[in-house]
Design a protein that fits this description.
With about 290 residues, the protein is mainly beta. The protein contains five helices and 19 strands. It has helices at about 60-70, 130-135, 185, 235-240, 265-275, and strands at about 5-10, 15-20, 20-25, 30-40, 40, 50, 75-85, 90-100, 110-115, 120-130, 145-150, 155-165, 175-185, 200-205, 205-210, 215-220, 225-230, 255-260, 285-294. The longest helix is centred in the first third of the chain and has 9 residues, at about 60-70.
């Protein structure tokens, strides 16, 4: 099947990519997708970003304090360069980036490669690794993944993965593989003290949309599965609430496509019994694909 690269227009700040009814706007200085629309309807409430923080559980509070000392909770993307490559079959934008908090050295460095195709599909691929000092301190990330903040109305959630209840790398044996349909509201797990919740381990397909089917489809590229979640709360919203009844859901739906989470069940027993699931300090190679649909 013959394919070709989508059309694009570049100015001093933005690259606008057009593929049929789908349009992306890429913010060059920040190295991120700032807008995604289909049929003239904007889908993103915020730019797409990398997420490294999670709302820790009671047995992780010591780890949380250590991670705050490295400003992992405030880590954001710093973009050093942006290069545009127009290939025959796709448009690539390559960004050299770092992740870190304000006034501290980065926690990790790497490259982000954005690929845009003529059918409206796009990919984000990250390759990088943690700073050496964090390795020496045995300080792992709480998580690593991408966050898509979708506008009001994107409430419906479909996924093929481990469900129907939440599942994680060390908390999924009581779940089953299947195609599940729910909502971002119903997917939320109401712990008395709010913590990270609602993700679905080993997911190979996800969709979040409004009642008319307008939204995004998601799939892993590398590795072959990711952790998938749709929620109305960010990690900091969860951490700032002392009790579940203090949470007030907003209109935005946050979709998380996670490469991995650190163990939630305590590293000692978990890593001894199932060392193959240990997330150590190996370089991260993570890529996902997505497409606006209606």
């Amino acid at each position: 099947v013959e394919t070709k690269a989508p059309e694009y227009v570049e100015d001093s700040r933005y690259i606008t990519v057009k593929a049929g009814e789908v349009e992306y706007k890429f913010d060059k200085p920040y190295g991120r997708i700032a807008s995604a629309s289909i049929g003239g309807r904007e889908l993103l409430a915020e730019p797409v970003k990398i997420e490294t923080w999670a709302a820790h559980g009671y047995n992780q509070l010591g780890d949380a304090d250590d991670r705050r000392s490295a400003e992992i909770h405030n880590a954001f993307q710093k973009t050093y360069s942006t290069e545009v490559k127009a290939n025959d079959d796709k448009l690539e934008i390559v960004c050299a980036i770092a992740l870190g908090g304000p006034a501290v050295v980065p926690i990790m460095k790497g490259n982000l490669v954005y690929s845009f195709y003529a059918d409206g599909k796009a990919e984000i691929a990250f390759s990088g690794e943690l700073r050496q000092l964090l390795k020496e301190m045995n300080m792992r990330l709480p998580r690593f993944g991408f966050c898509f903040a979708l506008k009001d109305g994107c409430e419906n959630m479909t996924y093929f993965g481990k469900g129907p209840v939440e599942s994680y790398c060390d908390r999924h044996m009581g779940t089953r593989f299947g195609l599940f349909e729910t909502t971002a509201t119903d997917n939320f797990v109401h712990y008395i003290r709010p913590i990270e919740n609602g993700s679905h381990f080993a997911t190979t397909y996800g969709k979040v949309s409004d009642n008319n089917g307008c939204g995004f489809e998601f799939a892993p590229v590398k590795p072959e599965a990711f952790c998938f979640n749709a929620t109305h709360f960010t990690p900091k919203m969860l951490e700032n609430a002392k009790h579940d009844d203090e949470l007030i859901a907003g209109d935005t739906t946050y979709v998380y496509l996670d490469y991995k989470f650190d163990s939630r069940s305590g590293r000692g027993i978990y890593e001894t019994l199932e060392p193959e699931r240990k997330w150590d300090f190996e370089p991260i190679e993570f890529a996902v694909e997505f497409k606006p649909v209606k």
